[in-house]
Every structure is written in structure tokens, then in C-alpha cells.
Amino acid sequence: METAHPYVPATLELPGYVAPEHSALTLCLAMGAAVSMVAGAAYAVLRQRVRGSELAAGVWFAVSGSMHSTFELYYVVYARTLAGRRDMVSSLWKEYAKSDSRYVAGAATVRAQEAATVAIVGPLCWLALWGMWTRRGWARDLGQLAASVLHIQGVLLYYGAELVGEAGCRPEAQYFYGYFVAANAAWLVVPLGLAASSMARMAAQMKHSPGRA
Fold first, then answer.
1. Residue 160 has pLDDT above 70, yes or no
2. In what residue span(s) does the EXPERA domain sit (predicted)?
3. 7 and 104 Cβ atoms separated by less than 8 Å
4. Which of 77-91, 152-166, 171-185, 189-203 has the lowest mean pLDDT?
5. 197-204 contacts: CB < 8 A, separation 24 or more?
6. Which of 44, 117, 166, 188 could form a disulfide with 155 if both were Cys (CB 3.0 to 4.6 A apart)?
7. Measured in whole angstroms, how far is the alpha carbon of residue 106 from the centre of its chain?
8. Peptide bond between residue 20 and the one before it cis (omega within 30 degrees of 0)
9. The most confident of 1-10, 142-151, 160-169, by mean pLDDT
10. How far is Cα 139 from Cα 95, in angstroms, rounded to an integer?
11. In 46-72, which positions are buried (b, 16+ CB within 10 angstroms) versus exposed (e)?
12. What's the average model confidence in pLDDT over 70-90?
């Protein structure tokens, strides 16, 4: 017997699927509260040693690193059994999956992408943050540039999946424009600025390094 679910396509097989016990509003508020707590804590700590635009970048990397190392790590670990899980984090993923049913289905492509994000991009975010805190410019710029480029690449590939019809998104505007587009756009727009900042700083350092004409 097929299990009824809200994902696209309707024929998607999700054995043992359990619907989230919390409303979409509750889940979105919970996610917003968690992000706000991380951002607030990062700001409170970093402002002791970091100022200006670098403080904002530090908060960004703290939030991104935390998401990669916790929320997305959860997905990598439980992707194959996500549909039948009942906890709050699985409910958050199930709600988000209304914009991309590959997540609730545990598709190999998204498992691989999320695993790479957890294993590579997450540590790069923490490297950038450590470089800012310790004032080690090489660590800050290496982590910032590499993490930003990988964020940009990941979002472009993710958007491309929808263009070629791989991502199953419900037709309602809140799922496509709210979850799929807007929820991921920050990891395209912000990293563009951070990558440009790192490259400009590195170019200036090379220009003034000893031995150059």
C-alpha cells in the first residue's frame, strides 16, 4: 500500500513515511530562533576582537559552519531513514523537502552533496573564523575564499537541478520562491562578496610583498 505524502511527484515511494507533528510556521520559527541564537552568540564573542565588515563575515561563517556541522550532518547520517523519523530536526528537513523531494527520498545526489558540504565546506568555515579570531590572515583568506567558492558552486548546481527537472518542488509559490530560491540565495549572494573581498585582499598583499618590482 502506498503511503500518502505531500511531495512531488505523487508517485514517489516513501515507505514508512511519517508526517511532521509540528506546523510549518512552528518549524520555520524554530529554525529562525536557532539561527538567531548562533548569530547572537557569535556576535557577542567575536566583537571582542573583530570589527567592521570582518565582524559581519565572522558571524556569517559561524552560522554557516554551525549549520554544516549540525543540521546538515544530521541529514547525512539519517538520510536513508528520514521519511520515518519523528524528531524536530527530521520534521524541519521534511518541511524543506516540499521544495525538493530528493531530500526526503534520500537521493544519492543530495546525500553526496551534503556529505561534501559537511566534510569540506564546514571545516573551511571554521578555518576562516579561526583566522579572524587569531588574526592569522592566511587562514582567514584561505578559508573565506575556498568556502565562498564552494558555496557559490553548490547553490548554482542546486538551482540547476530544478532547471533540468531533477528537484521535485511543489507548485505553490511559498515552496519554490520561499524555500527553494530565497532560503538558498544567501549562500550565493553573500559568498560572492566574501570571495571578492578575499581576492582583493590577497592581491593587495601580493602587490606589496617583498621582492616585487
1. yes
2. 53-195
3. yes
4. 152-166
5. 197/53, 197/57, 197/144, 198/141, 198/144, 198/145, 198/148, 199/145, 201/137, 201/141, 202/141, 202/145
6. 188
7. 17
8. no
9. 142-151
10. 36
11. beeebeeeebebbbbbbbbbbbbbebb
12. 97
Written as nine digits, the cell of 16 is 514508512
Amino acid at 89: V
The answer to whether the beta carbons of residues 101 and 12 sit under 8 Å apart is: yes
Burial of residue 175 (number of CB atoms within 10 Å: 0-12, 13-18, 19+):
buried
How confident is the model over 9-28, as pLDDT tens digits? 989 999 999 999 899 999 99
State the pTM of this model: 0.92
For cell 519523528, name the residue: 86
Q: How is 44-112 classified by DSSP, letter by letter?
A: HHHTTT--HHHHHHHHHHHHHHHIIIIIHHHHHHHGGGGGG--SHHHHHHHHHTTS-THHHHT-HHHHH
Cell match 573564523: residue?
A: 129
In this structure, which amino acid lies at residue 119?
Answer: A
